[in-house]
Specification:
3-stranded antiparallel beta sheet, alpha+beta, 106 residues, 3 strands, Arc Repressor Mutant, subunit A, 6 helices
C-alpha cells in the first residue's frame, strides 16, 4: 500500500500551473513556525491560544501563519463562539511531514 504514495516519472510531469501550485505548497513547509503549528495540530483541533502556548509564539505570529496555512489548504478553521479553532485539513499533511522526517533520519 505504501508504494501508492510515490509517483512515477510520467505522473510527475506536470503542466506549468501545477508546477507553480506545487512550489507554493512546498514554500509552506519552509518556515519552522508553520511546521510547529502543524505538529501541534497532529493531536487534533486547537484554538489559537492553545497553539500559541504550545509553540511559544506570539498571538499575532500564530494568527498570521494560520492564515497562510489556511490559504494553502493545509489547515481548516471552525468558529467556536469568539474563538477560532484550527485542525489539519486532511491526513496528507501528516504524510508529507512524516515523509520529510523519515528522509532526514536516513
Amino acid at each position: 500500500m505504501e508504494e501508492e504514495l510515490y509517483l512515477d516519472a510520467e505522473e510527475l510531469l506536470l503542466d506549468e500551473d501545477e508546477l507553480i501550485e506545487m512550489a507554493e505548497l512546498f514554500k509552506m513547509f519552509g518556515d519552522s513556525t508553520r511546521i510547529k503549528i502543524l505538529s501541534v495540530l497532529f493531536d487534533g483541533e486547537k484554538c489559537v491560544q492553545e497553539i500559541q502556548e504550545a509553540t511559544g509564539s506570539s498571538q499575532s505570529a500564530v494568527s498570521h501563519q494560520l492564515r497562510l496555512l489556511k490559504q494553502a489548504r493545509l489547515v481548516r478553521s471552525r468558529r467556536n463562539g469568539k474563538q477560532v479553532c484550527y485542525s489539519l485539513a486532511d491526513d496528507h499533511v501528516k504524510t508529507i511531514l512524516g515523509m520529510a522526517k523519515e528522509h532526514l533520519e536516513e
